[in-house]
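Bump. Still looking for MFS family major facilitator transporter structure tokens.
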Amino acid sequence: MQQKIDRHVIAAVIATGLLSFCGVIVETAMNITFPTLMNDFKVDTGTVQWMTSIYLLLVAIIVPLSAYFKATIKTKTLFLTAISLFIGGIIIDALAGNFVWLLIGRAIQGIGTGISLPLMFNIILEQVPQSKIGMMMGLGNLITGIAPALGPTFGGVVVDQLGWRWVFYLLLPLLLVSLVLGVWGIRQGSSLQAHRFDGASFALIIVFFTALMIGINQMSATAFWSMPVAGSLTIGLIALVILVVRSLRIADPILRLGLLKNKRFSGHLYGFFMMQILSLGLAFLLPNYIQLVNGNSAMLAGLIVLPAGFAGAICAPLAGSWLDHVGPRTPILTGISFSILSLIAFSWFGQSLSNGLILFIYIGYMAGMGAGMGCVMTSALGQLGHGEQTQGNAIMTTLQQFAGALGTNLVSMIVAASQIDTASQMARTTAIGTQHALIVLMILSISIGIVYFISIPKGK
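Sorry for the wait, here they are.
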């Protein structure tokens, strides 16, 4: 008999998805506003970057707590806390009279997003019938996947026509829709349990992500072997090692890293992490290329990459439904194959990419990535026992934030290395550096394909 999804569950998934959508779209839209903010608040580039950095840092610190939150706090309480924090942060930013208040608002939004990001997938895993999980994971990825595509265009249009404060104001109606759907639709799917909060591990998570963020942010401005870069990264690495050892030794860790001993789950995790780096790297490289090499505006760059974002978002639920019928192997390997072929094409034409060629190839890449991303999450969590899936979701979402900090910086450093040649024109050195970065991403994509071929089981 065909299993049906309860309408309350659909409303809960849409509500939590919309909240995550708002978090992602603010992050991507605000990048476009940086020049305006620098002028309005009289801050430099290094300072304005903290608009993104403080947000990502708080998200990364809070996400690992998601398994603990789910076990000890009601789902609706978590949702109401997250959306209240996010709306509060949005209002603070919209009314901010100085840059400090702008950062405070972004930090509050980061805490709200950190709580909300894992909520949607936890609800799907717990309350959706097994035969429909792939489709609903795809729907969840569709909702959040449109945001990175819309963000730059949305930010550019709003800043040009209304001013940067309207980036925040215009999200309030969506957040109110999310609030209404969440209050009506979210139901408690499991009983709560008492868990001891592991404060030492949480402190190590804070040290790791803070040191990582400082180290990565300083790479473009300071020598690698300086204290701000190498010193910060070393401190972060030490904190990570202690965190891993501790999680393997205690009975109830914040992140159950012992799950990484499951080779199939670890293989999926490697590919998921690298796929995030590929997508974030391209999201930086292509608009940069359209502006600096092809000489177009930021708004046109946003419009050129927009169709690819929609292609990826649409393919996510279609591939999820495909997974429900045939299992994960075929849709995932098909998706990553499209992405590999697209990166080969990008690398081949790397120094002579017209706007039309970028639009065409990027649609192929994002269609493949959209098909693969949601299916990978579904397949990865399917390698774990039912009681382990919340922890697996926490690990994957945490890793996603780590990739977010790493992806853009990796490709920007490769491009910057070519731009050092001041004897050549900026457009030419940028094109050369972009091609080098695309080749690195292509090699990484091939490694993902190999790992998936080994890790993903055949059949349903």
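The chain has a mean pLDDT of 86.

Edit: fixed formatting.
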